[in-house]
Predict the structure.
Amino acid sequence: MDIIQRILIDPIQYEFMQRAIVAIVLIGTVSGVMGAFVVTRGMAFMGDALAHAILPGVAVAFIRYGGNSQALLIGGVIAGVLSSLGIGFLTRGGRLAEDTAIGVIFAGMLALGIGIISSAQNYAADLTHILIGNILAVNAQDLTLILTISAIVLGVLFLLYKELLIISFDLTLAQTLRLPGEALRLTQLVLLALTIVIGVQAVGVALVAAMLVTPAATSRFFVHRLHHMMILAAIIGSLSGIVGMYLSWHLRIAPSAAIVLTMTAIFLLAFFFAPGKGYVWSLLGRSARTA
């Protein structure tokens, strides 16, 4: 009992840990659901680019309001949404390839963010948590904002699931059904930006892409349908967050690193040992055929 007390109970006796775990469950769930679209559509680069594109909004909010975490989140939301809309505008009608538009917006917003940050005194120390996350500093107001954004993203995905599924995989059918493809595509980009902003709160700009990609990539070894992939990715994302928080506590390492390393470990286990699809299973099947 003493071991269980020390390992499982002691860390969650503190309110900041309780808030952090609730926050990472919400963020892991939303990131997993949105990550299913990211992985199936090959949008990993988009996720990473938008993570860096929020820097100007965060920097402006920091200079204007100091370390107020709600202001930083709102600043990130505004910058992320504007960046996603900018990418959508540049690629509208196929005038510019999506990866090219992402590269242009990504580089421009990142440079703008660095320029703004470098104008502030002690910027390196004050904004370090933007790079590596600051989940332990989540307060009640932050939690409310994360919950609100999570509810918006999940609610819109639930309401527009069929439409987003069609435009993601069958543009011809979307045109036949006369769906507003451009509006739906922009909606998807905005939802991705919102997801990334709350993900940055947990693991920072440097690692937020892993929150989107790794749980969804892991779930592909076990399921075939998108909605099943979304559910399993959400479970993997939230459980990885909880395990990562405990590892962070006991190993005294950054929560962002512990969370992403947990996700990576689960992915590697799936890659090698997933029934029917894992690398080991493919080797065994190959050996059986040659025997």
Observations:
- The longest helix spans residues 181-219.
- The chain has 15 helices and no strands.
- The chain has a mean pLDDT of 85.
